[in-house]
């Protein structure tokens, strides 16, 4: 979700190539279509899985999207997910021996810190278990990451996988700074939609060219201004006349 614009984006990341692409986006307009952000994510995941049929293994999400419905949807697509839970999410790591408790109040042994623990999230079926990892993002922030990947037993690997989620923040930042994504001054919805679509097309093209020549999108954008200034210094369109 791009704050202040109302766009929900879906990004495809290839870790091996260290590249990422925008493959879908939706405008968040609940007054116009009655859809929530969760509805848009559901539609995009369904589109990627059933219509575009893109090859992917895992889905990375923010805390906001860590809902029962989306988790079960991803599992129905035969994919795995990695998503952080809110601190107050109710979970059980005792196999039903103790009541549910906040995820941030769980006690961790050294082995569990390194390899995670199996939990049940409140609201899921009794036999629906996921793997929980405690990921130290910084000295002031801890993420409680859950995954349905049965082969994942490493907190370090989980943290690395979740790190790819920040590619979407890179998209948002580059889109705003390079294409003027959030600078449309028009009030009509259709014009704003066209502006957003054109801005994303520009970003896609700049990203493609940057990958080809080994430069950043910022270097390409500023290079256009550099070329113009050099041309004007050599042959100015507006010539000065000195008395």
Class of secondary structure makeup: alpha+beta
> Level of helix content?
40-55%
Instruction: State the low-pLDDT regions, or none.
Output: none
What's the tally of helices? 8
Strand content: 15-25%
Instruction: Please give the alpha-carbon distance between the first and last residues.
Output: 58 Å
Strand order of the largest sheet: 3-4-9-8-7-5-6
Largest sheet: 7 strands, mixed
Instruction: Tell me the series of helices and strands, N- to C-terminal.
Output: EEHHEHEEEHEEEHHHH
Number of domains: 1
Please provide the count of β strands: 9
Tell me the radius of gyration.
23 Å
Instruction: Estimate the global geometry from the Cα principal axes.
Output: elongated
Mean pLDDT: 91
Textual characterization of the structure:
- This protein has 243 residues and is an alpha+beta fold.
- Helix content is 41%, strand content 21%.
- The protein is built from eight helices and nine strands.
- The protein has helices at residues 30-33, 37-52, 68-76, 110-115, 155-163, 167-179, 189-213, 217-234; strands at residues 7-14, 19-27, 58-60, 80-85, 90-92, 101-102, 117-121, 130-138, 141-147.
- It starts with 6 loop residues before the first strand and ends in a 9-residue tail after the last helix.
- It has one domain.
- The chain is elongated.
- A seven-stranded mixed β-sheet has the order 3-4-9-8-7-5-6.
- The model has no long low-confidence stretch (mean pLDDT 91).
């Amino acid at each position: 979700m791009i704050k202040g614009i109302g766009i929900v984006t879906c990004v495809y990341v290839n870790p091996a190539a260290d590249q990422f692409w925008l493959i879908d986006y939706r405008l968040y307009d609940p007054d116009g279509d009655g859809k929530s952000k969760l509805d848009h994510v559901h539609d995009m995941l369904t589109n990627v899985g059933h219509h575009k049929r893109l090859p992917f293994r895992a889905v990375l999400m923010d805390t906001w999207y860590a809902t029962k419905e989306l988790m079960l949807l991803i599992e129905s697509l035969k994919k795995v997910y990695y998503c952080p839970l809110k601190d107050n999410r109710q979970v059980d790591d005792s196999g039903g021996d103790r009541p549910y408790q906040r995820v941030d109040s769980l006690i961790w042994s050294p082995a569990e810190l390194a390899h995670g623990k199996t939990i049940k999230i409140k609201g899921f079926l009794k036999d629906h278990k996921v793997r929980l990892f405690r990921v130290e993002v910084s000295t002031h922030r801890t993420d409680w990451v859950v995954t349905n990947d049965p082969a994942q037993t490493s907190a370090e690997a989980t943290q690395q996988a979740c790190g790819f989620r920040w590619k979407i923040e890179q998209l948002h930042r580059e889109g705003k700074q390079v294409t003027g994504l959030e600078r449309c001054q028009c009030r009509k919805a259709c014009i704003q939609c066209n502006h957003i679509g054109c801005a994303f097309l520009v970003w896609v093209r700049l990203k493609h060219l940057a990958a080809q020549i080994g430069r950043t999108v910022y270097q390409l954008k500023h290079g256009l201004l550099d070329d113009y200034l050099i041309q004007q210094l050599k042959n100015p369109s507006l010539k000065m006349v000195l008395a």
